[in-house]
């Protein structure tokens, strides 16, 4: 089977549209939801979500990332492709059943979970929907169009329902149900489509050729990595809720959610490039290295200013998104702001450099070490510093992860000259603009929505101009493409 070569630019724009729609929903609904439900109920939902999230990870068993790489490798061979897809779907079915058995067992035998029973029953629908969606299949084939369309339709419907159905504190269970549909409802369409494709190619599939065991080791390696990362990211909410209380989970959630939304934007570049990089590493090393370097620079162009922006405007953002009752999250956002850069490095090293090269064990080792550090640290820090303590541990854990991977990559000379002058230009410009904007915002002009809007626009405008003036390679390339497309540059006439 020959697959059509899909433009990376097209895939990026489609993926960006999907992520942008999610961010828009967050921006427009978060202030409303936070004010209607308050910190306690927001924290309660987030606390239960973290419990369910670990069952989602277990039932997924590393397939979402492992599947992308394997599908991209055999996408030109229909027989290998649909045997692979069927095998992974069978594994997901088994792990999903096990997950539900454990959840219902916990509800029956552990009294601690009784106050959260209804929320657990609602949110556990995510486990099934996550398992059947097969998004890894579409990403491996670089079919972002299908994923984008189905997600946009569901998001628009849920966006409207949020304002129609959630009007008071007691509607928090309705809100939880809508979150399930928002995040995973589109997976039903994906399941139907993949089922049809498997059925259509059933003549190529022999049950004797089904071999689940071949996926256990590589998928489990990814699973261990995913669990380890989630321990020092998502488990923070669980520890805050258990040690400090639901209210502090709410404070941490608003700061963390906003920053994670932005990080999702940045990781769009990586998620689009992962299947292509996996394919090129096997087939064209030169192009692989070329794309890898360009991907890194684009991620940094987005990540560094986001870190600076969140640090400077943390109070304005919190007030807009949560109101005065969430002001305690201001310092939390400042502490978490470096994650935009740190997580981008971790994503780049782990999933774009090591994973396509079959070196996922290094990423796994790094995340396991960080996970153990965070678990121990949480017990000592959260009791005294609540949500802010958790934020510090998350940042330190992410740093530990990237230092471990960076050491291995440098020692084995896997990457060369990626921290070049263009990267230094990005850092210099952001430090320069950041200092000016910070001084203006804190000391020279009054803080209000109008001023914040003007400073935000100035930040973005001057950042883009300075990138062009200092001739940052990738920005300059995009600038010339735009000028050429709109005939802004006159051609030389001899």
Give helix % range. Answer: over 70%
Radius of gyration: 23 Å
Round the mean pLDDT to the nearest integer and report it.
83
What is the straight-line distance between the termini? 50 Å
User: Are there runs of 5+ residues with pLDDT below 50, and where?
Assistant: none
User: Mind describing the biggest β-sheet?
Assistant: none
- How large a portion of the residues is in β-strands, by DSSP E? under 5%
SSE class: mainly alpha
| Strand segment tally | 0
Order of helices and strands: HHHHHHHHHHHHHHHHHHHH
User: Which word captures the global form?
Assistant: globular
From the structure provided, what is the oligomeric state, counting identical versus distinct chains?
A: single chain
Query: What is the tally of helical segments?
Result: 20
Describe the structure.
This protein is an all-alpha fold and 494 residues long. Helices cover 82% and strands 0% of the residues. It has 20 helices and no strands. The longest helix is centred in the first third of the chain and has 53 residues, at 8-60. It is globular, with a radius of gyration of 23 Å.
Draw up the topology in text.
Layout: H1 8-60, H2 63-73, H3 78-109, H4 117-123, H5 125-132, H6 135-140, H7 144-165, H8 172-184, H9 187-200, H10 213-233, H11 235-243, H12 246-283, H13 285-312, H14 314-322, H15 330-336, H16 339-354, H17 360-411, H18 421-444, H19 449-469, H20 473-485
Helix pairs in contact: 1-3, 1-5, 1-7, 1-10, 1-11, 1-12, 2-3, 2-10, 2-12, 3-5, 4-8, 5-8, 5-9, 7-8, 10-17, 11-12, 11-17, 12-13, 12-15, 12-16, 12-17, 13-16, 13-18, 14-15, 15-17, 16-17, 18-19
């Amino acid at each position: 089977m020959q697959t059509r070569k899909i433009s990376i630019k097209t895939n990026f724009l489609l993926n960006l549209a999907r992520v942008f729609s999610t961010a828009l929903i967050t921006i427009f609904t978060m202030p409303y939801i936070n004010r209607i439900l308050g910190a306690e109920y927001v924290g309660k939902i987030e606390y239960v979500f973290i419990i369910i999230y670990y069952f989602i990870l277990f039932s997924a068993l590393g397939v979402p990332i492992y599947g992308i790489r394997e599908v991209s490798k055999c996408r030109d061979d229909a027989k290998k492709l649909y045997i692979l897809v069927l095998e992974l779907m069978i594994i997901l079915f088994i792990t999903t059943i096990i997950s539900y058995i454990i959840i219902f067992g916990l509800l029956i035998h552990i009294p601690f979970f009784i106050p959260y029973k209804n929320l657990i029953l609602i949110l556990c629908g995510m486990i099934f929907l996550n398992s059947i969606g097969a998004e890894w299949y579409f990403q491996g084939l670089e079919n972002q169009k299908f994923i984008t369309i189905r997600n946009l339709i569901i998001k628009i419907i849920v966006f409207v329902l949020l304002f129609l159905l959630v009007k008071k504190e007691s509607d928090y269970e309705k809100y939880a149900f809508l979150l399930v549909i928002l995040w995973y409802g589109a997976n039903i369409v994906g399941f139907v489509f993949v089922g049809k494709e498997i059925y259509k190619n059933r003549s190529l599939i022999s049950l004797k050729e089904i071999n689940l065991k071949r996926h256990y080791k590589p998928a489990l390696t990814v699973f261990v990595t995913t669990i380890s990362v989630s321990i020092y990211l998502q488990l923070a909410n669980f520890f805050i809720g258990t040690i400090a209380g639901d209210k502090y989970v709410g404070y941490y959630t608003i700061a963390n959610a906003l920053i994670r939304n932005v990080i999702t934007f940045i990781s769009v570049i990586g998620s689009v490039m992962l299947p292509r990089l996996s394919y090129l590493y096997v087939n064209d090393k030169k192009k692989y290295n070329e794309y890898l370097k360009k991907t890194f620079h684009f991620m940094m162009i987005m990540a560094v200013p986001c870190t600076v922006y969140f640090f400077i405007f943390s109070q304005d953002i919190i007030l807009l998104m949560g109101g005065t009752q969430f002001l305690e999250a201001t310092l939390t956002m400042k502490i978490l702001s470096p994650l935009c850069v740190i997580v981008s490095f971790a994503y780049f090293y782990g999933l774009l450099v090591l994973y396509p090269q079959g070196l996922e064990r290094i990423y796994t080792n790094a995340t396991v070490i960080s996970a153990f550090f965070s678990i121990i640290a949480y017990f000592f820090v959260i009791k005294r510093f609540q949500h802010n303590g958790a934020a510090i541990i998350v940042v330190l854990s992410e740093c530990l992860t990237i230092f471990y991977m960076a050491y291995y990559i440098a020692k084995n000379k896997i990457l060369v000259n990626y921290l070049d002058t263009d990267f230094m230009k990005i850092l210099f410009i952001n430090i320069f603009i950041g200092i000016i904007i910070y001084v203006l915002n804190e000391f020279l002009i009054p803080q209000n929505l109008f001023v914040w809007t003007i400073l935000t626009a100035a930040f973005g405008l001057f950042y883009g101009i300075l990138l062009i003036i200092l001739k940052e390679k990738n920005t300059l390339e995009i600038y010339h493409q735009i000028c050429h497309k709109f005939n802004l540059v006159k051609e030389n006439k001899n």
